[in-house]
């Protein structure tokens, strides 16, 4: 049955590259990406409160929050597969895929740097990393999220 192995691999690979196929329904994809964004916003907000002085700086909490943000910022993108237009997503996401991908990659890069900054264990590093992250959130939302 050696011949069946490549077929299994082809099936597995085509499933993973087709993001749409990961969700049973479009509304599941929308709920998934909005849920990931919501969790992300909660943890970014906690870090933002520390960075702005609205909450006391807690180095351990900063790392815990930044770890969540670094991981969860990888997730929403799978929820924007072909044919999943809707929710707060502007149609431009599907029309300007290169630009959307670039911003998604910028976010993941910003959140990795944020985690590094949190691990550095000082408030100034955290503040410095929050600026670009906030700018990336805002740029993408201004461009690709409905009001
Ligand atoms: C957040 C959040 C956003 C961004 C954005 C940054 O915490 O929910 O959408 O930061 O406000 O400009």
Summarize the structure.
The protein has 147 residues and is mostly helical. The protein is built from six helices and no strands.
The topology string of helices and strands comes to HHHHHH
- The fraction of residues in strands falls at under 5%
Structural class determined from secondary elements: mainly alpha
Instruction: Give the oligomer, counting copies of the same chain as homo and different chains as hetero.
Output: single chain
Reported for the largest beta sheet, the result is: none
Chart the SSEs and their pairings.
Blueprint: H1 4-17, H2 26-52, H3 59-72, H4 92-95, H5 97-120, H6 123-144
Helix pairs in contact: 2-3, 2-6, 3-5, 5-6
Can you walk through the features of this model?
The protein is mainly α and about 150 residues long. The protein has a single domain (about 25-75, about 90-145), classed as Cytochrome c/b562 (Four Helix Bundle (Hemerythrin (Met), subunit A), Up-down Bundle). It has 6 helices and no strands. The longest helix has 27 residues, at about 25-50. The radius of gyration is 18 Å and the shape is elongated. The chain starts with a helix and ends with a helix. The relative contact order is 0.14. Residues about 1-20 have low confidence and may be disordered. Bound molecules: ascorbic acid.
